[in-house]
């Protein structure tokens, strides 16, 4: 009995093997071995001849290890899902681009559910269907453009009902209303298993998030829950983007309204300031140029001010097209600024007759308020022109009465004093111009009065002629200028004669008679529309001139030849006398002068260089012959 009690118990040979098997499975779990490798310890034990109990024990250890492995894998998958959801939430927190966030959600859905494709559709309230918004893994262009009617297909059913649906084999599933359009697109994409979950905002379904495979596959509840979580994030992203967009739109509208209010306020301030400045200019005696300067300073651009005839008072009018004048007529009819191309036109009339037109050309648009500034400027300009016209008419009457008295009643006393009060100094050289015309008498008189005022002279109208007394000492040049400018103003020829009016008051009356005869001579000579003085009319000037200036005539007709003979000691005058005396015969001229014909030719060539190539024309030749005779007379009569 004692021996039996002290005898050691038999050695358990399976315990070590069981321990070894447990360690083997722990090692497999540690290195995340595949499920097939968990059969290895059992196969090794069976090969080593282990008994049935040992094999059974190893089988239980294998099952437990596989269960632990499944739990670990589920937890790892859950951890990855939670991490993806956390990343999605982080993306939403820093939302900048809705498309990028939705693409990231769809991409994560595809990765986490290990599907071939993931995509998202959104409802279109206006059309009453759903459309493809984002895809990941799609290979079909028509699938990416697919639209699903409400209730049709799996996606249409999810969008309509707001309930997740999934199918392991879409085409064999009778729960969905199949349509040819959807089935063709799904077949072209090669989809078989599809899971769709609703995108919810409160109780409203705004779309569907899908995960799909191109082979049959069931979707477990955990995958449905995961896709629902991603769909919730997508709905939040869409709603956040909508709110941000509405906020940005509201801010943009507020900013635009604030900008408009500020611009309107600034325009009103500009208009008030411009109005005050233009009013001040009128009170201080400013002119049209000053008003134009205010307009361009306030509004910018280039301003052209036109008078009633469309002639520029300020700026240039050469590049204005005819449309501007049509716009001016419309502006006068409407009483508002009219835009034509890049030009803003404001025009004012008096008694249905245009008075002035302002044309503002600018590269930037002019607001309605700023257009009112242009209209006020046009009115101020019109008032200035009316005032100027009234003053000019009153002053013109006074100046015209003085010139009438100087011309017709020079014996009146106090004419000098009256001239000085009008700013006319009769002691300085003046030119009296008589311009004959067949145009409008009032317009001709207004033009002459304006010219006299600008030049500090006098003007009057006498029937179909205007008379001007202007400072100057060049009668011919002034006569031509008056003829040209008055012709342009009247639109028909005006002929002007001029004479110097220097010396006593009575010289004005004499100058008037001479200028009148000059104008008549020009008309008689067929030179209507021209201007000249008596000195420029050649021998005719000897008839019409008051002073009968032979010296001036000789100088004009023969001066260069006389000067050449005096300087060189030549005989050009003598040759000319002989040439005209022989009827223009070169040979007889040579005989009369006892020189060679070639010498005569050379001398006449020199005459042509001095007097001009037209010296032998009939009219010019007549003047030269008369001048030669007068020269001979003066040679024999020094006092002539």
Automatic annotation (TrEMBL):
Q: Which Pfam families match?
A: GAF, GGDEF_2, HTH_30
Tell me which residues make up the GAF domain.
97-248
SUPFAM superfamilies in the record: GAF domain-like
Q: Where is the signal peptide?
A: none
Lineage top rank: taxon: Bacteria
- Family the entry assigns: Belongs to the CdaR family.
Task: Name it.
Answer: GAF domain-containing protein
- What is the species of this protein? Microbispora catharanthi
């Amino acid at each position: 009995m004692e021996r039996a009690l002290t005898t050691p118990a038999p050695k358990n040979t399976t315990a070590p093997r069981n321990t070894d098997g447990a360690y083997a499975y722990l090692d497999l779990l540690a290195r995340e071995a595949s499920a097939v490798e968990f059969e290895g310890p059992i196969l090794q034990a069976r090969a080593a001849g282990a008994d049935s109990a040992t094999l059974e024990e190893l089988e239980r250890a294998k099952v437990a290890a596989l269960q632990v492995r499944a739990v670990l894998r589920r937890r790892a998958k859950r951890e990855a899902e939670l991490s993806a959801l956390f990343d999605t939430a982080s993306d939403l927190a820093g939302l900048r681009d809705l498309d990028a966030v939705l693409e990231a959600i769809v991409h994560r859905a595809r990765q986490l559910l290990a599907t071939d494709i993931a995509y998202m559709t959104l409802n279109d309230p206006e059309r009453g269907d759903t459309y493809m918004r984002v895809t990941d893994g799609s290979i079909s262009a028509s699938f990416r453009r697919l639209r699903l009617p409400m209730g049709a297909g799996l996606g249409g059913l999810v969008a309509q009902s707001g309930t997740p649906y999934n199918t392991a084999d879409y085409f064999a599933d009778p729960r969905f209303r199949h349509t040819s359009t959807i089935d063709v697109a799904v077949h072209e994409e090669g989809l078989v298993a599809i899971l769709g979950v609703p995108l919810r905002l409160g109780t409203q379904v705004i779309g569907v998030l899908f995960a799909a495979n191109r082979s049959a596959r069931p979707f477990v509840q955990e995958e449905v829950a995961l896709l629902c979580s991603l769909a919730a994030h997508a709905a939040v992203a869409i709603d956040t983007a909508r709110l941000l967009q509405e906020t940005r739109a509201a801010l943009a509208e507020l900013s635009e309204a604030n900008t408009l209010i500020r611009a309107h306020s600034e325009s009103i301030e500009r208009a008030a300031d411009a109005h005050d400045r233009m009013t001040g200019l009128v009170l201080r005696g400013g002119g049209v140029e000053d008003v134009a300067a205010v307009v361009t300073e306030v509004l910018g651009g280039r301003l052209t001010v036109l008078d009633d005839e469309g002639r520029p008072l300020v700026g240039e009018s050469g590049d204005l097209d005819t449309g501007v004048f049509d716009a001016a007529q419309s502006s006068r009819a409407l009483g508002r600024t009219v835009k034509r191309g890049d030009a803003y036109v404001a025009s004012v009339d008096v008694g249905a007759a245009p008075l002035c037109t302002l044309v503002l050309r600018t590269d930037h648009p002019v607001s309605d308020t700023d257009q009112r500034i242009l209209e006020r400027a046009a009115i101020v300009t019109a008032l200035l022109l009316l005032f100027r016209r009234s003053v000019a008419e009153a002053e013109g009457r006074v100046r015209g009465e003085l010139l009438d008295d100087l011309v017709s009643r020079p014996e009146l006393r106090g004419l000098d004093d009256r001239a000085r009060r009008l700013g006319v100094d009769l002691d300085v050289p003046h030119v009296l111009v008589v311009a004959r015309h067949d145009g409008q008498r009032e317009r001709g008189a207004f033009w002459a009065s304006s010219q006299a005022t600008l030049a500090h002279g006098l003007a009057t109208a006498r029937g179909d002629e205007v008379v001007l007394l202007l400072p100057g000492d060049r009668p011919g040049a002034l006569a031509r200028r008056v003829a040209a400018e008055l012709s342009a103003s009247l639109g028909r020829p005006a002929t002007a004669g001029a004479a110097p009016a220097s010396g006593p008051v009575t010289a004005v009356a004499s100058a008037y008679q001479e200028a009148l005869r000059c104008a008549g001579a020009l008309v008689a000579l067929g030179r209507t529309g021209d201007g000249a003085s008596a000195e420029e009319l050649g021998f005719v000037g000897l008839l019409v001139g008051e002073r009968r200036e032979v010296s001036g005539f000789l100088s004009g007709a023969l001066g260069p030849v006389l000067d050449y003979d005096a300087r060189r000691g030549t005989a050009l005058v003598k040759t000319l006398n002989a040439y005209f005396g022989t009827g223009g015969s070169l040979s007889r001229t040579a005989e009369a002068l006892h020189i060679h014909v070639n010498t005569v030719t050379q001398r006449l060539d020199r005459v042509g260089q001095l007097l001009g190539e037209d010296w032998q024309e009939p009219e010019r030749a007549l003047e030269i012959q008369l001048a030669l005779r007068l020269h001979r007379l003066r040679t024999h009569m020094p006092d002539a």
